[in-house]
């Protein structure tokens, strides 16, 4: 996998997990809002979530999850896509527009610095807080070894 693909996956993950208000604020804070057209969506559907027991066992269908997707095209010809968990039409539209903008070399560095990096830091801080909340209730199981009888 190339570095470019990894980078795009990272920013798409940050956009997919971002609160709608943060995306709206970033959109309103742009110096020049680009012209774009909606190619597909935003539309909501269902996807099947698959899992494995212990992350190593046989796969099984865990259940369905609602997902909202959107595809936009900038006037420069760049396409942006977003898949958002839940019923989030506006969030999917904004995430797709930012995905397209991040593909433009003249916009990429600024948006990565002002939007993607802060979103990733906020997500990491949120996960750290959750770990700290759960840690006191964690139970460590151990096996007591008995001597030979």
UniProtKB/TrEMBL annotation:
BP terms from Gene Ontology: organic phosphonate metabolic process; organic phosphonate transport
GO MF annotations in UniProt: lyase activity
Protein name (record): Phosphonate C-P lyase system protein PhnG
InterPro entries from the UniProt entry: Phosphonate_metab_PhnG (IPR009609)
Coiled-coil positions: none
The UniProt record lists the keyword Lyase: yes
Keywords: Lyase
Residue intervals passing through the bilayer: none
């Amino acid at each position: 996998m190339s570095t470019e693909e990894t980078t795009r996956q990272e920013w798409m993950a940050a956009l997919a997990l971002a609160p709608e208000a943060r995306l709206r604020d970033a959109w309103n804070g742009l110096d020049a809002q680009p012209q774009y057209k909606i190619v597909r969506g935003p539309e909501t559907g269902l996807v099947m979530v698959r899992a494995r027991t212990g992350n190593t066992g046989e796969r099984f269908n865990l259940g369905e999850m609602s997902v909202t997707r959107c595809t936009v095209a900038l006037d420069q010809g760049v396409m942006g896509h977003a898949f958002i968990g839940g019923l989030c039409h506006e969030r999917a539209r904004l995430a797709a527009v930012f995905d397209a903008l991040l593909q433009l070399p003249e916009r990429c560095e600024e948006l990565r610095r002002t939007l993607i990096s802060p979103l990733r830091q906020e997500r990491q801080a949120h996960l750290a807080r959750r770990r700290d909340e759960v840690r006191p209730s964690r139970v460590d199981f151990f096996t007591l070894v008995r001597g030979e009888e």
